[in-house]
Amino acid sequence: MKDGCRLLVFHITSNGGTLEDGLELSRAIERLGREGIRTVAFVDAKAYSAAAIAAFSCREIVMSPEASIGDCAPILASPVGGLEPMEGAEREKMESVVRERMESLAEKHGYPAALARAMVSQRIVVVEARNAKTGEVRYVEEPDLFGLGPEWEKGEVVDSADELLTVGSQKALKYGIARHVVRRLDDLYDLYPIEGRIVTYPVMWNETVVAWLNHTYLKALLVLIGLMGIYIEMNTPGFGMPGTIALVAFGLLFLGSFLAGQPAYLPPLLFVAGSILLGIELFVTPGFGIVGVSGLLLMGAGIVLALSGLAGLPERDFEWSALYRSLVVTGGVALVFAAAVSVLARFFTRLPVLGQLVLGPSTGSDGSSRAAAAVQETAVRLGDRGRSVTKLRPAGKARFGERLVDVVAEGDFLAADIAIEVVEVRGNRVVVRPGFASAEPRLRRGGAGEE
Question: 414: which strand partners?
């Protein structure tokens, strides 16, 4: 390490985490050992699942009297909450990865390998084997007892076939998992050659932020915020705060994996490609067809992959499960978005501040929507010609004689101050198109006619 420390203590109190994170942490701790740093795991209360893998990655394990360690069986998070077990081939594939890792760490650091395997798989039976001549004690799987020789006798059953091994501090000390049992962290001064005070490296605020950015539900919230920002931006003139918020939300959605040190390039690439195709469909080509649909599909695929935490297409069973959960969460976000859009479309213009951002329908003197529709219908008729007052993106204002009317452009967005013609009047919805299509500019972002 940069500060020259030769002893690194990992203060562990955790129920664990994802398998991928646990294995990555395990590999990082092993790299420290190869660099000559003495690694010690101080299990203060509990070390389960991935936390147990991290503890076994250290050269020594020290536990407090109340601590326990074990239960490394892989599990899946249910799409509707809670946990669900894995069965059959899927379970065996996951267990084999964790079992091999725990066994390798145990053999490397002198922990009983059979006990390490028993923390992962239920079917393993571990017994105490005692040498009748020397008194030596080993902990082995029951079938291996007979291969030790006639002088080895079977002792107590340490772990049966119907349970995962989890042990407290005293049993961990007895079985050779824990090197010492101490009451508090400061007791390590009596066990190791520590000069001066122990330097503590707390969890930094940026690490907390990165952890939050990679949380599924926060990512789902960012997707919802981004979609709402796009919706509001598409219904407001120019480019403003809603569009900026949408860009920031989607940026944070894809940035999380990069900040966590596990960059996933495919999700943002799919989303950007889809956005480009959608922009081409909206602002360049007339109507809405295969280009726009392809853009929406690519954007959706990027969002689903980002929510699942996958860097690419799934291959293993647990990756398919993660993808399924992501699809469920994405469907929930879509339903919430549809409900929010329905509410905003009806009540947005009545809100004190937000209502000023959107071009809403004209209202009559009594303030009712029915009066607004009546005023709009009498203001213009099919075939009337006027001039746009604002840019039509697609909604905006137009003047017909002395009357100022809310209108919607048909097809492309239109620039301000051009001749227009009414092609449809339905209630308070007035649809217009350029009055002189060959001479008047159409408004396209980045193209001719943009002001």
Answer: 392, 442
Beta bridge partners of 89: none
Task: Please check the confidence at residue 311 and state whether its pLDDT lies above 50.
Answer: yes
The neighbour count for residue 158, using CB atoms within 10 Å, is 20
DSSP 294-342: HHHHHHHHHHHHHHHT-SSS--SHHHHHHHHHHHHHHHHHHHHHHHHHH
As given in the structure block, the two tokens for residue 275 are 């956005």
Last residue of a domain, one of 300, 330, 355: 355
Distance CA 295, CA 281 (A): 9
CB burial string 223-257: b at 16+ within 10 A, e below? bbbbbbbbbbbebbbeeeebbebbeebbebbbbbb
State how far the Cα of 305 lies from the Cα of 301, in Å rounded to an integer: 6
Tell me the angle at which helices 216-234 and 205-213 cross, rounded to the nearest 10 degrees. Answer: 70
Given a cut of 50, whether residue 204 has pLDDT beyond it is: yes
- Domain range for 31 is 7-96+164-190
Q: Is residue 401 one of the residues assigned to a domain?
A: yes
Contact 407/395 with Cβ under 8 angstroms? yes
Q: Which of 321, 339, 355 is the last residue of a domain?
A: 355
- The SS3 call for residue 446 is coil
pTM above 0.85, yes or no: no
Residue 38 sits in the same domain as residue 178: yes
Question: Does some domain include residue 197?
Answer: no
Confidence of residue 198 (pLDDT cuts 50, 70, 90): low
Cα–Cα distance measured from residue 283 to residue 276, given in angstroms and rounded to the nearest whole number:
10
Q: Are residues 330 and 390 in the same domain?
A: no
What is the pLDDT averaged over residues 252-279?
86
Tens of pLDDT along 101-116? 999 999 999 999 999 9
196 domain-assigned:
no
- Tokens coding 260: 């966590």
Q: How far apart are the first and last CA of the chain?
A: 57
Of residues 425, 435, 420, the one with CA closest to residue 379: 425
Do residues 222 and 288 both lie within one domain?
yes
Q: How many domains does the structure of the chain reveal?
A: 3
In a domain, 450, yes or no: no
